[in-house]
Structure formats: C-alpha cells, structure tokens
Amino acid sequence: MTYRAPLTDIAHALKVAGLDELVETGAFDGADSETVTAVLEAAGQFTEGVLAPLNRSGDQEGVRLENGKVRSAAGFAAAWKQYAEGGWTGLAADPAFGGQGLPKVLSLAAFEMAHAANMSFALCPLLGEGAIHLLSLHGTNRQQDLYLKNLVSGAWTGTMNLTEPQAGSDLALVRCKAEPHGANYRITGQKIFITWGDHDMTDNIVHLVLARLPDAPPGVKGISLFLVPKVLVGDDGKLGAANALRPLSIEKKLGIHASPTCVMGYEGAYGEIVGKPGDGLPLMFLMMNSARLNVGMEGVGVAEAATQKALQYARERRQGRSPWSKDQTALIVDLPDVRRMLALMTAKTQAARAICYATAVASDMANHAESEHAREAAKLREDILVPIAKAWSTDVAVEVASLGVQVHGGAGFIEETGAAQFYRDARITPIYEGTNGIQAMDLAGRKLGLENGKAARDLLIEMRSTQIADKTIAAHLSDAIAACERATDWMLANRGTPDALGAATTYLKLMGDTVGGWMLAKGADDAARLGLARFYASQVLTLAGGLADTVESGSAGLENAAILGA
Amino acid sequence: MTYRAPLTDIAHALKVAGLDELVETGAFDGADSETVTAVLEAAGQFTEGVLAPLNRSGDQEGVRLENGKVRSAAGFAAAWKQYAEGGWTGLAADPAFGGQGLPKVLSLAAFEMAHAANMSFALCPLLGEGAIHLLSLHGTNRQQDLYLKNLVSGAWTGTMNLTEPQAGSDLALVRCKAEPHGANYRITGQKIFITWGDHDMTDNIVHLVLARLPDAPPGVKGISLFLVPKVLVGDDGKLGAANALRPLSIEKKLGIHASPTCVMGYEGAYGEIVGKPGDGLPLMFLMMNSARLNVGMEGVGVAEAATQKALQYARERRQGRSPWSKDQTALIVDLPDVRRMLALMTAKTQAARAICYATAVASDMANHAESEHAREAAKLREDILVPIAKAWSTDVAVEVASLGVQVHGGAGFIEETGAAQFYRDARITPIYEGTNGIQAMDLAGRKLGLENGKAARDLLIEMRSTQIADKTIAAHLSDAIAACERATDWMLANRGTPDALGAATTYLKLMGDTVGGWMLAKGADDAARLGLARFYASQVLTLAGGLADTVESGSAGLENAAILGA
Fold first, then answer.
1. Considering CB atoms only, which of B323, B405, B563 is closest to A532?
2. What pLDDT digit, counting tens, does each position of A385-444 carry?
C-alpha cells in the first residue's frame, strides 16, 4: 500500500482547530465548506496519485550534480509541472499576485499530504512559501511583479540561503558579502545546506540570501537580505543570462535523497536588496517562521505516512497468539504490545496535527480576526505555539517513524519495506529551520517573556477552563495542566538563567505533551477518538508531573563540564 | 576522531558489577587483575587499530553476492584473521576446547569494544558465541572435536538459522524439514535474516538450523536443532565437498551494511542433530540467551561510539554564546541544551553498560558461585536482568544515536560525518534476537513468574537496602524504587492478562531506568560520576512515578480495535 490521504482526520482536525470560526470572519471569500472539501479532496488525489508513487523511486535514485547542474530524480520535473498547474504553489497567496487567498491552515493541510506522500518533493514548495510570504509583505512592486508572481504560479521556485560553514544556528557569524553595484549589489560567498538550491524542474530559481554590506556592523545587526535569481530577469520579465552563482556540490545525506542539498557559490552574483540594509534578520525570521510551522507539518506528514504503513503491515502479518482474537495465529495488530505501539503512533500523530493546525489558525486569526483584541490574542497564541508545533511535532515524527520500523520487526530494517525511509527522512525535521534546541530557547526565552508570560498563561487558562466529560481524561489532563502551570512559574522565575536554558527542552516537551492531550480530548466526539484520547492520557499525560520535576531541577549540575568525563 | 576504547569507564563498570567477587570464587584461574587489565588493553588496541578503521568503509562498500557467494567488504577477511589469531573468538570458551576460560563478563567487555568500533564485524563472532555456548554444553564429543574447536579458534564461524518468511517471532510456524538419512539428516527449506550466513572470511561456516522431523508434532515442541556445515567435514577433520546449501540473496538494509544478511536455501543439505529430537526450542534459547545479552552489549557499544563522536564534535564546533564560558563564540559543548544532550547520552550509556555487565556477572556467578544458594540467587538475577539488558540497552542505543545526530545539527544528517551511521546501525538492535516487545513479554511473563516474583523482589530489596549518601539521588531513587515496587505488585497481580501484556513494555522501561540509576549511584565514587548520577536522577528517575501510573492503566482501552481508526 502507498499513502492514503486521511481526509476524515484532516477535516476533523480543521474543525477542532477552528476553521469555521476563521471563515466566519469573512476574510476568506472563497473558503466556503464546499471549497474546503474540494481542495482537500483534490490534494488527496494529487498527493496519492502523483507524489506518493515517486517517493521510493526518488529515494533510491537520488539527485546528481552533472556539469555544474543538479538533475532531479525521474518524474519530479513532470510532477512539479502538475503541482504548479494545479495551483498548489499559491493556495494561501494573495490573489493580487495570482494566489487563491485561502486560509494558511488550509494550505498547510494540503502541505501535510504532500509531505506525507513525498517529503523530498514537498520541501521545494515549503521553501518557496517562505519566499512568497516575504515578498508579499516586503518586496517592491517590481520584485512582486517580476519574481513573486512567478513563485506563486510555480513557474519558478524559491530558496532560503542562510547557513555558511561557520554560521549554522548562529547567524551573527555570517560572512557572505554584498557590494553595492549601481542600484543593486554583487553577492559573493558560500552558502551550505541549501535545499533545492539547484534543479531542473523550472527555468529559474529565486534565492533569498543573507549577506553583509561593506560598512555593516558586526553581529546580526549587520545582516541584510538579498534576492538573487539563478537567471537574470529583464524588466520585461524575460529571462536573460545566467547569474554568477552555481551549486558547488551536493550532500550525501541520511534521508530525503530526492531533495538536493547544495553548497552554493556566489561569485559576484547580481542581487537586489529586500527591505532595508540591516533588516536581514527580522526578514529572515518572517520566512523562517513560516517555514518552522511548515516543518512541524512535515513532521505530521511523515508520522502519518509511517503510521499508515505500520498499520497496514500489522493488519496483514500473522505471528503469535492474541488475547483478543480467536485466530490460531493472530494478526499482529491484535497483539497488545503491537497495538500499543500503533495506538501511540496514531495518537501522537493526531495530537501533532491538532497543534500545527491550531497554530496555523492562530496565524490566520492574527491577520484576519475582526477585533484588534482578537488579533492580538491570536498573535500571542501563534507566538507561543510555533516553537511547540515545530519541535514537538518533529520529535514525534522521529519517535513515530522509529516505532513504525519496530512494528515491522526484521522487515522494518529492510529498505524495500519503506518503513526505514521514513525513519531516515524524519530525522532531519528536528534539525533544520532552527534545531529543536533553538525552538526550546525561543519558547523559554522570547515567547515566555512576551507580556511577562501572558501567551503561556492564556493558553493554560483556556486549557483549564475546557470541560472534559470523560473522567479518566479529565483527571490526567488536570494533573498535566497543573504540571505545566508549576513548570511555567518556575521557567518565568528563572528566565534567562542557565537553569532555564538547561530545562527548556523538557519544558517544551511537557507543554507539547499536554497541549496535544488537551486537543485530542477536545476533539473526542466519537467512541474511537474518545478511546484514543483516553489512551494518550494514560500513556503520555501520566509523565507530566515527572517532567515538571525535571524542569525544576534546572541545569542539574551541567555547569560542571567534568560531568562529561575527560 | 575515530573510536577510543573507554578503558577507565569499562574497568570501573567491571568493578561495580562485581568482577572482583567473581574472581574470588576461584573459578577463573587466569583472571587475576593483571590479566584483566592486559586483556582490556589489548582489546582496546585491536578494536581501535583494526576494527574501527573499517567501520565507515564497510558501511559504504557493503557486501555483495557474486556467483552465489558473499564477498565481504575490503579488509574484513584480514581483520577476521587477526581477530582469530588474537584469541578473541575463544575468550570465555572452555580451555578443553581451546578457549581461554575467562569470565563471560570480561569477554563481553571486549565485545563491547568490538561492537563500538565496528558493529557489522562484531556481529559475526556474536553469533559464533551462541554456537560455541551451545556445542560446549550439548555437542557430542565428535561435534566438539570437529566443529566446536574450529569455532573457538576462529578458523570457522557460526550462525543461527531460526527465522523463515512466515516464522519470525513465532517459531511455532517453522516449516524447514529434516529427513533422516542414515545416522544423520537431510535439511530442506528456506531461512531468512541469517546474519553472516555466507562470507569469504573463513573456509567453513557452521550453521545451526531449526527444522522439523517428518513425524514431529506441530508447534514449538516439534522443532529440533541441526548442525549443518557449509563445507562437509571428514572424520579426520579435513574439508570435503560443498554441502547442499547456499545464500539465495542478501538484503539491502538500513544499516550494518558490511554484515551480510542472507536468505539461505537448504536443498537436502547434510545435517547432524544437536541434542535430541524435539529439543530445538530449549537449545535455541541457550544460544539466544547468550546472544540477547550480547545484543544489549552491542547497544552499549554503539551508544558509546555515538556519544564519543558527538562529544568530539561539540568540543570543536563553535556557535552562539554560553552562560558558562567567556568565549565570544562558545564551543557548543558549553551550551546548556547541548551539554544536556551529551550528559544524557553519557549517563544512559554508562547505565546500560552497568546493567549488561551486572547481567554477565550474574551469569558467571550462576555457574561458578561457591554455594548452591548463591548460584541459585545469581541465576534468578540473570533471568530477570537478561530482558532488561537486551531491551533497555538497545532502546538507549537508538535514543543516544539519535541525540548524537542532533548534537551535530545539520552536519549530523550528512553521511560523511558518521553520526548518521550509528543512527542507522543502532536501529536493528531493538529488533533482532527477540524484539524488545518479546523481551517485555519475557520479563512480565516468565521472569516475573519465577518463584512468584522472587527475582524481581530480590532485586528491589537489594536496591532498597543500598545506602546512597547523596541526598538528591537518594530521594529520586527511593521514589523510583517505590514506583517499581508498585508496578511490580500490579504486574504480578495481573500476570498473564491482556492488561499486563499491554503494560509490559512500560514496566520494562521503568525497571531499566531505575536499575540503571541505582547502578550509576552505586558507582558514583568521584565528583564526575556523582555529578552524572545526580543528573540522571533528576532527568530520568523523575519519570518513574508516571511510568508506574502508566503501567497501572494496563492495556488502556487497547482491546477495542476501533482505537486505531478504520
């Protein structure tokens, strides 16, 4: 079996996340329920029929650098053409630029299916989304006309060029140079880990590149952002000569083999500034925040795909005896420990989906809610949820993909089965677009600091005030919320100290576990969902008190480097 | 950097595990402390100098099936020759068969280093150990003379042939046939997942094969065990014609690429019975139990190697600012969240090592303690610890290898760095030699049932009675032991029910977490080890109460298959 788009679960999660309330704001003309259904069904068909069949072949074939150009895996260029023609690249973009103006949450639901079907492929539009978001807000009219519209239509693709060998998580160390040249700039330097930095799927690629002007101050304040096309574009929109940039090499990676990860060389390349000199970091964060939530979505997608594959296997494979089945040799889905793994995979995947969709709805509401008060509240909610959506969902992706291998037993370790690919592919998601450690620092630092903890407190208050009918769930959830309250108090009291830095990852896990359990409980509107929410409560929320204890132990002696031995 | 044998940590763990008391039994003539030190140092040199340099090249090259024969990766055959000549294949074997008669725990310490340096290579002698153990106890004099001595010397290697396509964890389904032919048998059938089932490192391979006699009853009682050489052996020990067996194909796997995993075809091959007809299962378990502990050791090895690599990287890579370092750009080892990951990796690796060594000492003591009472107590201890040593240590291996990738950030996802290989290689360890789910069933079922829970209770009593001076550790440990006591009572009260089966994996994790923390605390004889034990207590033992709550939720609604959706 290949991927089947979980349309019922997705529609349910959109409802729980508040899609209806979002549409009621009137900000999304076209987003009536028929349209929503039609978009989801079309995304399901496209991802099942076009993207999923290229997932394993792309993994096996990988990408090649030939004569200075990246060749994508067989079928990818044709799939991109269909993807663009289907309007998938501009789902949430402004109609003024050729987009469909649908809610971000709906666009992300479609992305989830693309990630699940073919993570390597979907990474390309994921990065394009960041560029579209940025240029919609900060591009000049000319940039919007010449570049943005082609990104929205999918005629071209976009990339983010941040990392350099010495500058990974720490962008203060960026050295790439931008020298004024007429009204524009010459960009020189090397960038690494550039996803889809080169390929043969479209005629042009729009690179957004962090670099320093000659007179820029050191550190992050000296960084500016530049638009650097692969092929020069005339004022009439016609493609001209090649720009002075090229992929120097591509990485041999653990996973996402069909997604080229390039070292890019800029050799005095033509570049246009986006925004003002020195605005690089905030502009980069605009792209990055869009990408962070989308990477969380990627986690949901690969977790969903891994769960489906494991479930399918467990419903066909017979071994041993079950206390619940009369079969002489049981289907392994009927063995308690296997069903436990599958239920954990299902529950965590659904919890991660709920968190990501809720983050997207908050983001939409932050722009479109009717009152300023509602927009501000939604912005706070988005701010606190983004690092959780990114980090918790991607940690879940790795955990679920690993459980998926385990459910398969020995067969899971054989590449042919496909479970191993999810385990390999998923492993990048806690790393890129800000490692999960960075997300934890963001949550424990800047996000917790907003209005002295208001974002976290508002969330906890809303969780506390939710009526949960099921007694088992209500009891576990109440304990878990109490653990979150205690840990939040402690994190606020210690904000910025080494103790809080040492406890940040555990705090994020505690918050993610609890918010996920709360969302499953809120959405438990039938017996199956209620059973799953109860299972999650008794398997995951039970650990919340211990996690809060761990948070309160702070850095737990880590300040002494001798703890790691000689 | 490549692997460095952690001789200080290993010597420390051997001491805490009770090697001295073992030697004092007088059962191991040669095992004075100079010999122990010399063996460990020699193992360190050999694994660092010979095996580790072949780890990445073996991963990249893999193995090939050419003209019906498996070709090992470059350098492996020469390394095997050195391994055999060094006496490593017979470290714990009986001197009567050419072995060195050293304690099993010392042999396993040497194995740990081999696993860490090159997991693919070390798998070959791991399986040979099982065959040596079996034939030492149950081989005929002729089998010991013709086969066992060659296994002990490393002239030949051994395999275990259990699995068939329809019979993985459930050996009742084995179909391979053994038909009487003169005094011996003709073996016919197909076996899968046969590690080092064929290779070019030695002249012969001794296969131990589960099969059914024509008149055998169905189920596991109808299984017998056969010795089937790759090349026929004359009564004079000379090699004759090829036997009627061959590797049909090799698997393309997620990891351990240099270890051939074969589908083996037996086409009326000559076989000799080992033990009596119908003894297959208990004899197989003799081999399997030896292999299970050794797979736990493999988990320790790969976790150690992953930790070393991550630590090395974190001590070279600079990014961001640290609250503990005055560097403008800090080494990432000085970032609290990175140091947290490294400390968790270090602590869990050391805890897993302590558990595995303690299991090995119990096994040695079960054979060699002076009083029958002490031997019986040691056997109970070995019985309860084997599933924990196997499952907990290998889950730790996967967790630690994954953290190792994370510490590297983007570089961890690039194969060249080497962190990804550990992540891939480690993933098989929770699967083979009995999945970790099977280990949990063994612990919660047969092992907990021994003398109505005596094995678990004796362990908990010993843990309770250990004086821990450090107050932080003592408090967390006491809580964790209480959680184990509560969970053990519950598991005993519910033994054999679906609830206990659903809770078994969580129970095993709880026991492993706690026993590991207890062992770290027992061994905390300097400031660094005390710091690490305290860190573990505040990060891991804190979760014990929640795990016990999870155990008590039993199968938590899993009996309803609808929990998994349609």
1. B563
2. 999 999 999 999 999 999 999 999 999 999 999 999 999 999 999 999 999 999 999 999
Mutate to test the interface with B, among A4, A254, A414 (most CBs of B within 10 A): A254
| Fold observed for domain A7-153 | Butyryl-Coa Dehydrogenase, subunit A; domain 1 (1.10.540)
Tokens of B334: 């000085």
User: Which residues, 6 or more positions from A427, have their beta carbon under 8 angstroms from its beta carbon?
Assistant: A254, A255, A398, B402, B405, B413, B420, B423
Hey, what are A101's tokens?
């103006």
Choice among B372, B433, B462, B559 that is catalytic: B433
The answer to whether B508 and B563 are in contact (CB under 8 A) is no
CA atoms within 13 A on the CB side of A59: 23
Identify the burial level of A300 via C-beta atoms within 10 angstroms of its C-beta, where 0-12 means exposed, 13-18 middle and 19 or more buried.
buried
Is residue A212 within 8 A of residue A218, CB to CB? The reply is: no
- For residues B114 and B55, is the Cβ–Cβ distance under 8 A? no
Q: With an 8 Å Cβ cutoff, are B527 and A562 in contact?
A: yes
Q: Which of B343, B440, B562 sits opposite A337 (nearest CB)?
A: B440
Cα pseudo-dihedral B6, B9, B11, B16, rounded to 10:
-160
Q: Which of B60, B316, B400, B539 to mutate to test the interface with A (most CBs of A within 10 A)?
A: B539
Interval A449-477: pLDDT, tens: 999 999 999 999 999 999 999 999 999 99
Q: What is the pLDDT of residues A272-331, one digit of tens each?
A: 999 999 999 999 999 988 899 999 999 999 999 999 999 999 999 999 999 999 899 999
Ramachandran quadrant class, A169 (left: phi over 0; alpha: psi -120 to 50; beta: rest): alpha
At A360, list the tokens.
Answer: 């997207």
CA distance A103 to A92: 6
The residue of chain A with its CA nearest to that of B409 is A431
Kind of pairing between the strands at A205-212 and A157-161:
parallel
pLDDT at A2 over 90: no
For residue B169, the model assigns a pLDDT of 84
Quote the CA–CA distance of B153 and B131 in Å, as a whole number: 13
Q: In the CATH scheme, what is the code of domain B158-277?
A: 2.40.110.20
Whether ipTM > 0.90 holds is yes
Provide the pLDDT for residue B1.
56
Q: Is B433 one of the catalytic residues?
A: yes
CA distance A253 to chain B (A): 4
- Contact (CB<8Å) B543/A546: yes
Name the residue facing A338 among B415, B437, B560 (closest C-beta): B437
Judging contacts by C-beta atoms under 8 Å, the chain B residues touching residue A564 are 311, 333, 339, 342-343, 346
Query: And the tokens for A443?
Result: 């949550």
Q: Is B196 left (phi over 0), alpha (psi -120 to 50) or beta?
A: left
- Cα distances (Å, whole numbers) of residue B565 to A318, A526, B53, B539, B560: 20, 11, 49, 35, 10
Report the pLDDT value the prediction gives residue B2, as an integer from 0 to 100.
87
Q: Residue B437 burial (CB < 10 Å; 0-12/13-18/19+)? A: buried
Q: How many whole angstroms separate alpha carbon B541 and alpha carbon B532?
A: 13
Extract the residue ranges of chain B whose pLDDT is less than 70: 1
Answer yes or no: is pLDDT of A1 > 70: no
B402/A398 Cβ within 8 A: yes
- Find the closest chain A residue to B255 by CA distance: A413
Q: Are B393 and B356 in contact (CB under 8 A)?
A: yes
Q: Where are the alpha helices (DSSP H) in A317-445?
A: 336-368, 372-408, 419-426, 436-442
User: How far apart are the C-alpha atoms of B55 and B256, rounded to whole Å?
Assistant: 9
Across chain A, mean pLDDT equals 97
Look up residue B552 and give its two tokens. 């008590």
Q: Where are the domains of chain A?
A: 7-153, 158-277, 435-558
